[in-house]
Amino acid sequence: MSGVNEAVAAVTARIEARSRDGRARYLARMKEARTQGVGRARLDCGNLAHLCAAAAADDKRAIRLGEAKNLAIVTAYNDMLSAHQPLGAYPDIIKDAAREEGCTAQVAGGVPAMCDGVTQGRPGMELSLFSRDVIALSTALALSHGAFDATLCLGVCDKIVPGMLIGALAFGHLPTLFVPAGPMPSGLSNSAKARVREAHAVGAASRAELMEAESASYHAPGTCTFYGTANSNQMLMEVMGLHLPGTAFVPPGTMLRDALTRAAAARACTLARDGTGALAEIVDARAIVNGVVGLMATGGSTNHTLHLPAIAHAAGLILEWEDFADLSRVVPLLARIYPNGSADVNRFQASGGMAFIVRELVAAGLLHADVQTVAGPGLHAYAREPHIAEGRLAWRDPAPSVFDPDVVRPACDPFDAEGGLRLLKGNLGRAVIKVSAVAPRHRRVEAPARVFHAQEEFLAAFAQGALARDVIAVLRFQGPKANGMPELHKLTPPLCALQAQGFAVGLVTDGRMSGASGKIPAAIHVTPEAKDGGPLARVRDGDVIRIDAERNLLEAKVEPEVLMSRPAAAHDDGVYGMGRELFAPFRALVGRADMGASVL
Fold it and tell me: What angle do CA 146, 149, 154 make, to 5 degrees?
């Protein structure tokens, strides 16, 4: 780990130490799978005929004769999600590029891709986190035919990329590349949209005005332009070496985007022929740490305190919340993208984007630069940006100076000396809090609790004026065992409105907020969750709650014996409608939030 920051090296070493046995078992399984070779060569004639029955004539011949490497395309395409609609054209692009390389490609399977933007505040959101594990299982099903030499995963949004990666890691002996779609054009600014939302929350903007603002924000094919989980996913795939360099934030429908998609297919063919670039060799402890570092440096989504531990587990590694906290203390914040600033991802890309971020982090010794990637050894290729030169795809160094210092800054002059994600502990359990968008004066708040069991209860109390005071909203029974751990974005506008009125406000929940908590101090992912007997189930209205992100405290100012002597609040297990009853086994089996909230 020569040249790597001491704290980064220390976190990596302890992950490797605590994971030694599990990682060894995982690598042994992958070695065995690789030794067995591609199952296509062992298929009986009937099996092989089924595999290529619908293929084009030349592809069918190549597959039957076993003379070409065969690429699996696993896609999250649907035309409801703006981020995934562009993926509909990708299979033909990939197949054409593969043929030029003397290979074949087949759509091996599709995975579900629900939209958190559609389901926010609705019953369907309670399936959102579980969809990650369904996607992992679906990816495994797509690859279970044993007919492929490499994998191309086409996905973008919140649970889709983590789920695909978890599923692909079960086939980690294969080279695997992620191929995204890119962001939609910039529309109404995110800050303007937020102002309309807050105005609507207090009755100062009509539903028609709100609809107009939302439609001006989300208006075209491509990923939403704020820096939520979807765009954090793309950053992760880049900094973990699973994209081709510079792929993350190139817009759809452009010559450069199509060239990168073709290049991903060609690269998968090369790796398959060379027998290099196995996913299991790329996703090691160093890559996981690089992902956490990238998350901190860019102010990414808190959802990855769930996803990255689950991804690590799939690779035989153990990642803990303490690792996030320790890395956050030494990784400077180099980007301000909404909700941690006013810029969107298109402006971030124009200001140097991932090439700039990787260059700065490598130079500062905050990334493991000696990792394996799908582009080859080392991260240095990821400090360059793609472009079209004389009609061909090429890479170049980013501009040596910062283009827009309001959006990105060098490691020597960051927006903040730390990444802004902190671990809270106290008599209410453990929680994470994102403070990169929280003003320092709001990072310590102490106020009486008002307890809710549903977002609707909170919103009704707000509408009635019952929360117009200093208050810590405690929203419990929102954890994975209770109802699938939905995101609670509907709380943000009213909480922001209360804060703007001068009240001391905060949120404590065993649910999720992604990056959308913004300027409100929000202790989220509280574990043990209320449904699992956590102390949150014993909090009562009026208990004084302290959220102190400076001292890393989350506590109720109640004597321990008093708190724990109270009966735990009851929770209705009758979860049904919108398919939620089908996921009862998931709720029964799911692990704790600090272990990834996974059923796998």
Answer: 95
Please name the residues in contact with 266: beta carbons below 8 A apart, sequence gap of 6 or more: 97, 98, 100, 101
Cβ burial, residue 443 (10 Å; 0-12/13-18/19+)? middle
* Helical segments of 180-227, H only: 190-201, 207-217
Neighbouring C-alpha atoms within 13 Å toward the C-beta of 111: 36
Contact criterion met (CB below 8 Å) for 385 and 348: no
Residues 315 and 356 in one domain: yes
* CATH at residue 502: 3.50.30.80
Q: Among 339, 363, 396, give the residue marking a domain's end.
A: 396
Residue-wise pLDDT tens digits, 146-168 = 899 999 999 999 999 999 999 99
Q: Is 480 within the bounds of a domain? A: yes
Q: Which residues have C-beta within 8 Å of that of residue 438, sequence separation ≥ 6? A: 518, 519, 520, 521, 549
Span 61-105, pLDDT tens digits? 888 888 899 999 999 999 999 999 999 999 999 999 999 999 999
- As given in the structure block, the two tokens for residue 563 are 């708190």
Q: Sort strands 70-75 and 104-110 into parallel, antiparallel or unpaired.
A: parallel
Instruction: Give the sign of the dihedral formed by CA 494, CA 500, CA 503, CA 509.
Output: positive
On whether residue 415 sits in a domain, the answer given is no
| 460 and 339 within one domain | no
Cα–Cα distance measured from residue 507 to residue 474, given in angstroms and rounded to the nearest whole number: 6
Q: Does 297 share its domain with 347? A: yes
For the chain, what is the domain count?
2
pTM of this structure: 0.95
* Residues 551, 273: Cα–Cα separation, whole Å: 53
Residue-number span of the structural domain to which 255 is assigned: 6-36+68-185+220-396
* 591: three-class secondary structure by DSSP: coil
Cβ–Cβ under 8 Å, residues 170 and 199: no
